[in-house]
């Protein structure tokens, strides 16, 4: 068995999984190809190899990896993208079957894909079968769940206990109702989903515990205690009273409750500050994620700092690149509280075997 902490993070992104591991006292080594994302990771103190996951050789890593994490790019399967991945699903399934049988047909299949990025979803299985880590954790948009279920079938045949399903980040302390598909696998213990720490509306205490607190709200995490009032003005006017239902560092003169709107259509999702945010998407809709008042009048766009907090990152996280690139990194990242919840039952298995 390898030394504890040898955790490999494929398509590592800006550090959502890494931040989750950090709360557990562990570190990973991330493989990431985007230069701006690599700068972000380095500035945040996360070890990074800048490379293409699909081209990186697994041979030098054999016997050196105890845990494998992966969040393949989701643009081809996401509702925010063109969903070319739906057309490529049969090819992805075929390559998963081929890898399970020991045949690498990625090059041929990639040339046949509508979007070559679709095939990145098979990379975790290639690494898993070559490296045989003690445990595995994968994350993607819910549309990828059938491919995760196929991957789990292959891992079960290789001696892993597996679980696949969709988790809501709000159930694990994030102020956002973000739903994502997960695959959890272990060679040392049963693979089980994490136990929720929060619930919609909370749950009552019973003989078995104190119950769960209700979902956290945007107001909770952005520093806006409901009902508090501040006064702004001068000695001449005596000031004006505003409810602190907007982010505390950016209150304006509007005396109405703020809401977050995601999208620019009449049917766009709207959430009050006393609710969790909806799933934050920052692709083409970047400029349409904004604060509005109770009458629907625009106040301003969501800031990078606010988006980071709603995604479970510190407000001062060192995002690199343009404003668009920073929002892209935030929207693609695994929320750290959810990452920690998924990893915490798996990591002790690796540590115990290594001891």
Could you walk me through the main structural features you see in this protein, from its secondary elements to its overall organization?
By secondary structure, the protein is an alpha/beta fold. It contains eleven helices and 13 strands. The termini are close together.
Sheet of most strands: 7 strands, mixed
Please list the strands of the largest sheet in the order they lie side by side: 3-2-1-4-5-7-6
Q: What's the level 1 CATH class of the largest domain?
A: Alpha Beta
Q: Could you please say which CATH topology of the largest domain applies here?
A: Rossmann fold
The count of β-strands is: 13
Give the overall shape, derived from the CA principal axes. Answer: globular
| Reported CATH architecture of the largest domain | 3-Layer(aba) Sandwich
CATH superfamily of the largest domain: Vaccinia Virus protein VP39
Secondary structure class reads alpha/beta
What is the average per-residue confidence, as pLDDT, rounded to a whole number? 86
Number of helices: 11
Distance between the termini: 9 Å
Radius of gyration: 22 Å
State the helical fraction: 25-40%
